[in-house]
Amino acid sequence: MSLQGKKIVLGITGSIAAYKAAVLIRLLIKKGAEVQVVITPAGKEFITPITLSALTSKPVISEFFAQRDGSWHSHVALGQWADAMLVAPATASSIGKMAHGIADNMLITTYLSMKAPVFVAPAMDLDMFAHPSTTANLNTLRSYGNHIIEPAEGELASHLVGKGRMEEPENIVAYLERYFAQRDELAGKKIVITAGPTYEKIDPVRFIGNYSSGKMGFALAEECAARGAEVTLVAGPVQMKTVHPTIRRIDVESCAEMYEATTAAFTEANAAILCAAVADFTPETTAVTKIKREGDDLVLRLKPTHDIAAALGRMKQPHQRLVGFALETNDETAHAQDKLRRKNLDFIVLNSLRDAGAGFRHDTNKVTIISESDIKEYPLKSKTEVAKDIVDELVAKVNSQRTTVNSQQTTDKL
Ligand code: C5P
Fold first, then answer.
1. Which residue lies with its CA nearest to atom 14 of ligand 1?
2. Are 7-182 and 190-407 equal in CATH topology?
3. What's the CATH superfamily of 190-407?
4. SS3 for 149?
5. For residue 10, what is the enclosing H or E element?
6. Is the distance from the beta carbon of residue 207 to the nearest atom of ligand 1 less than 6 Å?
7. Which protein residue's CA is at the shortest distance from atom 17 of ligand 1?
8. Distance in Å, CA 308 to ligand 1 centroid
9. β-sheet with 84-90: strand ranges across
10. Is the CB of residue 198 less than 8 Å from the CB of residue 254?
């Protein structure tokens, strides 16, 4: 992997971690990138522009205007020049200004003018990092489509130990390399993703539902779209927003609606990831008016719903890939393997309710990816990171199909 020819605007803000920017620049340049530094006034208190311009072979940009000759730096031109903007280190203050568009220095105006993807590597003390305002501002940046390179845990400049240390330059560079390497991996591929719960109506005000938040499915949709796929996201009732502009979202409520939308989209698709927690049963009839409290008990008769995964498994053509999920409470692997076969899936993502931090409503998940030929266990990670692992696996499956098709063509020619 490399960053050959990539033009990177490196934004440096006023954190002690700014001293690591020198190493970061060396590594970026070694990988073939061209680096233009934009530094905040506070950043210059931590590392000198002379060091930075010597390393990048370019004057460092900090002020809007050159004092003596009246010339000025165009943040708009920088926004169009760059292939990526990396803010490292990013202080709580700059993150706050970026989130709220407070353009009182050259770095923030450059950020607001940026046409290229933006990567942010926070650096601050553990309590500042844990403050709800920092969390909210980082989430705002995520909602703008910016990539947050999570800080590491460890000893901080204050000698306190915790999360807030800027990620090491090597890992930041690896993050950028991975981004550029993966950006077009799924270009031209159509992927259908189901997410969230389904609601099965009992009467006009009540339903049978479940605790699914949709977070995992939405993270998968973002990851596939980031790698160039055309995503159709069929979402049950959730409080979630999509970020990537190309995601086509179809909102549904019941299993029947999800079945219609998903089977229709699958005919055109290269793959489907079925992440939704779909109801297995639905009321036989939906009462037209609100059911009143009458008598001692109430019997609801339920009938089975469509199994969307199994239906797609039957529809599946040789060029199509199908991924399912299994949330299990006991004999996890055996149950997941059974579903893999029964539903004709290419692989299944297993999460167990026995693992702390995994499953419904959490921001984290701990999964095992099971296919016919192997079982891969992953540690507890954020759902965004888990989505990357799952999509890596999907890319491998899509490509293995490409190899098969090629070898088939070769055989045909012989
Ligand atoms: O059988 P079980 O519900 O545990 O299987 C889970 C997998 O099947 C998930 O991928 C889920 O999205 C999918 N599923 C479905 N339609 C259903 C039930 C489950 O697509 N009615």
1. 309
2. yes
3. CoaB-like (3.40.50.10300)
4. coil
5. strand 7-12
6. no
7. 307
8. 7
9. 34-39, 7-12, 84-90, 118-122, 147-148
10. yes
CA atoms of 129 and 409, how far apart (whole Å): 55
Q: What is the pLDDT of residue 76?
A: 84
In angstroms and rounded to an integer, the radius of gyration of the C-alpha atoms of the chain is 25
Cα angle 266, 244, 273 (rounded to 5 degrees) comes to 30
Q: How far is CA 124 from CA 139, 234, 235, in A?
A: 16, 39, 37
Average pLDDT of adjacent 10-residue blocks, the chain of 414 residues: 94 97 98 97 96 96 75 82 98 98 96 96 95 97 93 87 94 96 94 98 97 95 96 97 94 98 97 97 97 91 97 97 93 95 97 76 88 94 92 91 45 34
Task: Report whether 124 contacts 92 (CB < 8 A).
Answer: yes
- CATH number for domain 7-182, candidates 3.40.190.10, 3.55.50.30, 1.10.8.60, 3.40.50.1950: 3.40.50.1950
Beta-bridge partners for 194: 234, 274
> In angstroms, rounded to a whole number, what is the distance separating the alpha carbons of residues 29 and 55?
9
Which position among 105, 171, 210, 406 bears the catalytic label?
210
Mutate to test the pocket of ligand 1, among 258, 308, 337, 367 (most ligand atoms within 8 A of CB): 308
Q: Is the CB of 325 under 6 A from ligand 1?
A: yes
| Residue 287, φ and ψ in degrees, nearest 5 | -65, 140
State how far the Cα of 98 lies from the Cα of 324, in Å rounded to an integer.
38
Residue 139 annotated among the catalytic residues of the structure: no
Reading the block at residue 191, the tokens are 């992927």
307 Cβ inside 6 Å of ligand 1: yes
Residue 90 in contact with ligand 1 by CB distance below 6 A: no
Q: How far apart are CA 222 and CA 135, in angstroms?
A: 20
User: Where are the chain's structural domains?
Assistant: 7-182, 190-407
Cα 115 to Cα 132: distance, rounded to the nearest angstrom: 29
| Start-end of H helices in 318-382 | 332-342
Atom of ligand 1 nearest to the CA of 326: 6
Residue 152's SS3 state is: strand
Query: CA-CA distance, 127 to 83, in Å (whole number)?
Result: 33
Q: Which tokens hold the place of 97?
A: 């200004």
Distance CA 212, CA 197 (A): 5
